[in-house]
Design a protein that fits this description.
The protein is an alpha+beta fold. It has 14 helices and 11 strands.
């Protein structure tokens, strides 16, 4: 009688959609994968986003899904691939650089913000502390207008103007516009890749050579190298859109870069086509400390992104199974 009672209770619980204390909707109880079509997770041109893509994709593969990893353009993916389903998920869209593109994607009604990745986003001009001796007014942005300070950051190709190493052109960031609007005697040079930018930083830092460049966080660089971000006039939407706002009444972009969140996005049809994968993607988060450490394992220790992602998946199975509604 006791065995029969337990068996009856278990069947009743399952029929109500309650497994291990987790209330499951009919869609969440569907057989996984709900479709054998590939889920396409975008790869971009920096390390952390591709680590996140491979971790999330690896989780979905272990749950039985087919996953592909197309390389996409960061900003245009929001209004092309994610709107038509050529891309299913993008895991890192930063308020600092993709605010306008995200607003455009939201306006289409064909994409969905899946929530915040976790870490806060910061991107700005950055310099090593040893450069402060040559430009003591730093980190105030107005120190950069001093010809002697600008020349301290110069190279033979830019002298007497300073040299600013910006990110790849696909990141935008409006640094050329910022230099012009603020009257800075600097030449903007764009790195070809994320890796090339940080390789140049490492080389300069070891030699205590002049360098001013785009540094972002979360990233391992601010922890490895001693330095400071330039303190520009505080960002506002109006500073980017209304020339009358800001220190230069005739030009926009006379302020620093925005700060904010890092967002996950999905194609609007994902929720209905792959409901369990959708829930995993919504639940997926990493802390800034985790992401910094994982990025360092790739960029500093020479591990492959695939190996780093697999190790995280192996070590955090209870967490990601919880996102899939399979927690114990």
């Amino acid at each position: 009688m006791v065995r029969n009672f337990k068996r009856t209770a278990a069947i009743a619980a399952i029929s109500c959609g309650i497994v291990a204390g987790v209330a499951l909707t009919p869609k969440a109880m569907a057989e996984v994968p709900e479709s054998t079509d590939p889920i396409k997770i975008a790869l971009f041109d920096w390390t952390s986003v591709n680590i996140n893509a491979k971790i999330l994709g690896g989780i979905l593969e272990r749950l039985g899904y087919t996953v592909e990893y197309p390389t996409a353009d960061y900003l245009s993916s929001l209004t092309t691939g994610l709107t038509n389903g050529d891309i299913t998920i993008g895991v890192e869209y930063w308020d600092t650089t993709a605010g306008e593109a995200m607003a455009a994607a939201d306006a289409t009604g064909q994409t969905e913000r899946l929530g915040q990745l976790g870490p806060k986003a910061k991107e700005e001009w950055w310099y090593p502390l040893y450069m402060k001796e040559k430009c003591p007014g730093l980190p105030n942005w107005e120190a950069l207008k001093d010809p002697a300070c600008a020349e301290a950051f110069s190279t033979p190709e830019t002298a007497p103007n300073g040299r600013y190493l910006g990110g790849p052109v696909t990141w935008e960031g409006f640094d050329d516009e910022r230099v012009e609007a603020l009257g800075l005697p600097f030449v903007v040079v764009h790195a070809g890749t994320d890796a090339a930018m940080f390789a140049e930083l490492d080389s300069a830092y070891q030699r205590k050579a002049p360098i001013m460049l785009w540094i972002y966080s979360p990233h391992w660089a601010p922890a490895k190298y001693q330095g400071e971000w330039i303190e520009f006039p505080e960002y506002s939407v109006e500073c980017y859109t209304d020339p009358a706002v800001g220190v230069n009444p005739d030009m926009a972009y006379d302020c620093g870069k925005p700060h904010g969140e890092i967002w996950k996005y999905a194609w609007g049809g994902m929720k209905d086509k792959w409901p369990v994968a959708y829930q995993v993607a919504k639940g997926y988060q990493l802390s800034a400390d985790e992401l910094n450490a994982l990025s360092g394992q790739v960029d500093l220790d020479g591990q492959s992104i695939d190996d780093v992602a697999k190790a995280w998946i192996d070590a955090n199975e209870s967490k990601w199974r919880g996102w899939a509604g399979q927690g114990s």
